[in-house]
Structures are given as C-alpha cells and as structure tokens.
C-alpha cells in the first residue's frame, strides 16, 4: 500500500470537454484534481462538483524579484487565497516569475543577480506569512528552461530547494516537478531524497513529450517504490498530456505506475 495520494491536472486531460466536466471525470476516476489559473473558471460550478482540489495556481500576475513584481504577486496571492478557501484547496503554486500564455517568463532572466536572490527570499517570506494566516501552503515549483520555459529565473529544483530552505516555513514548500527536473537536472531519486522534508507535492509526466508515465525515459515504478520506501505521504499529481488522446487510458497508466 502506498501512503501518498494521486491527483491529475484538469487543464491537460479530457480537453474535448468543458472544464467542469473534466473535473468531474477526473474525480469520478478516484483522483484529486489540480487546476491552474482561476480567473477564467466558474468557481461556484467547480465547488458543486464535489471534487477534492489538490492544488491551484497561487497568483495571477507578479514576480519574485523584479521592481514592482513582488507587490503585485502578493496582491494577487491574496486574491488566490480567497478562491482557495472557496474550493477548500490546501496548496497554491507559484513560480520564479509570472508566465505568459505560452509558458514564457514575463520578465526573462536566466541568471538572477545576488540582489534578486535576496529579494526573492524576502518575497517568499511574505508569501509564507500569507499562507500561515490562511492555513494554506504555498509551493514553489521548479521548471525547465531547455524545452518549456526558457529564461525563467529560479527555475531549477536546486534553486527552489535553496529558496524554500532559506525561508524555513511550513507554509512555503516545494512542488517538485519530476518532468522538469529530468530535463534540467536528472538524478531524480537522489533529488527526492535530498528534498523530501521540504516537499509538499510531487508532479509527474514523462520525457520526452510531457505525456503520462510509461511513455518515455523515466522509470516511474522505481520512483513510486522510492517514495513508498521514504514514507512520502503527500500528493503525486500527473501534469501530463494523454499520449494517444485517450485521457482515461492515460489515467489508468498513471495509476498503474504508482500502485505498488
């Protein structure tokens, strides 16, 4: 028996359906549900689905370390917390900088300056304080800059780990995305072992293609066994496209890879 729970991203599955129907299909299959931005969603309709929401994007605009960016990030993080309360969503995800509709950074900076690192840590301290007041956890997600998010600052898992350690708050944790980490860093099991005390969620997809586990180079059954052996009790969320367009089959393959 595994001690962790499985979730799936409604943004990437059942794309032929209206969004609320996607959420219902994922929940009916026994998974928790992840969503991205909330501004275009019918929050009342999402509540009525009865789904368990695992995580959502925790800001609308803003950045960690660029001029007025931190204040904007904090302003929209407060708005996001209100929505998270309505959905009873425990985790809110943030990135090193805002991303546009193509996943590209709104303020590109491949190599942050020392001053930017300091500002990012101070911004995340304030984000964690917002989480503490609301009883919810913000997560800082690692991204890859080689394929999906070129020019994003604080993108590597090693970067997010350093920032989360620096803030040292239970209300700021890592969202360790293994798809991004495989592209950027590799050595995934050792990375999980190193970061485990600071992980609030793990996201998965296979490489290449960002499809469900079992379609690429990552040995996800070995990852699943390592998580069980390490006693991980959080959420493993599939943030992946269905490789054949069959979302039910993708969910079944995901479940199979993480059932041991």
Description:
The chain has 260 residues and is α/β, with parallel strands linked by helices. It has one domain (5-257): TIM Barrel. It has 9 helices and 8 strands. The protein has helices at 19-28, 43-48, 69-87, 114-134, 157-167, 178-184, 188-195, 220-230, 247-257, and strands at 5-9, 32-34, 53-57, 91-94, 137-141, 172-177, 199-204, 235-238. It has an 8-stranded parallel beta barrel, surrounded by 6 helices. Helix 3 (69-87) runs parallel beside helix 4 (114-134), helix 4 packs across helix 5 and helix 7 (188-195) packs parallel to helix 8. The model has no long low-confidence stretch (mean pLDDT 96).
Strand order of the largest sheet: 1-2-3-4-5-6-7-8
**Average pLDDT over all residues:** 96
Structural class: alpha/beta
Low-confidence stretches: none
Order of helices and strands: EHEHEHEHEHEHHEHEH
Proportion in helices: 40-55%
CATH superfamily: Divalent-metal-dependent TIM barrel enzymes
* β-strand number: 8
Tell me about the biggest sheet?
A: 8 strands, parallel, barrel
Task: Report the C-alpha radius of gyration, rounded.
Answer: 17 Å
Q: What is the CA–CA distance across the termini?
A: 7 Å
Percentage of residues in strands? 5-15%
Tally of helical runs: 9
Coarse morphology: globular
Write a concise keyword list for the protein shown above.
40% helix, 8-stranded parallel beta barrel, 260 residues, alpha/beta, TIM Barrel, 9 helices
Gist of the model:
The protein is of the alpha/beta class.
Compile the SSE list and pairings:
Elements: E1 5-9, H1 19-28, E2 32-34, H2 43-48, E3 53-57, H3 69-87, E4 91-94, H4 114-134, E5 137-141, H5 157-167, E6 172-177, H6 178-184, H7 188-195, E7 199-204, H8 220-230, E8 235-238, H9 247-257
Parallel strand pairs: 1-2, 1-8, 2-3, 3-4, 4-5, 5-6, 6-7, 7-8
Helix pairs in contact: 3-4, 4-5, 7-8
């Amino acid at each position: 028996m595994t001690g962790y729970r499985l979730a799936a991203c409604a943004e990437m599955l059942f794309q032929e359906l209206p969004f609320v129907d996607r959420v219902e299909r994922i929940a009916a299959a026994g998974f928790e549900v992840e969503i991205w931005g909330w501004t275009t969603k019918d929050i009342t309709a999402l509540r009525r689905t009865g789904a368990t929401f695992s995580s959502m994007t925790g800001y609308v605009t803003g950045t960690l370390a660029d001029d007025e960016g931190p204040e904007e990030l904090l302003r929209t993080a407060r708005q996001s917390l209100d929505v998270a309360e309505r959905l009873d969503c425990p985790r809110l995800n943030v990135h090193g900088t805002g991303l546009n509709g193509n996943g590209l950074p709104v303020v590109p900076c491949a190599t942050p300056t020392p001053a930017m690192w300091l500002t990012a840590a101070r911004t995340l301290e304030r984000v964690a304080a917002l989480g503490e007041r609301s009883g919810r956890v913000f997560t800082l997600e690692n991204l890859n800059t080689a394929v999906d998010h070129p020019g994003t600052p604080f993108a590597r898992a090693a970067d997010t780990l350093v920032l989360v350690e620096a803030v040292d708050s239970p209300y700021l944790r890592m969202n360790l995305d293994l798809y991004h980490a495989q592209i950027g860093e590799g050595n995934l099991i050792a990375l999980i072992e190193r970061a485990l005390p600071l992980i609030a969620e793990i996201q998965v997809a296979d490489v290449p293609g960002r499809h469900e586990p079992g379609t690429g180079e990552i040995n996800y059954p070995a990852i699943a066994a390592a998580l069980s052996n390490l006693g991980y009790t959080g959420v493993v969320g599939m943030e992946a496209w269905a490789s054949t367009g069959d979302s039910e089959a993708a969910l079944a393959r995901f479940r199979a890879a993480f059932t041991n």
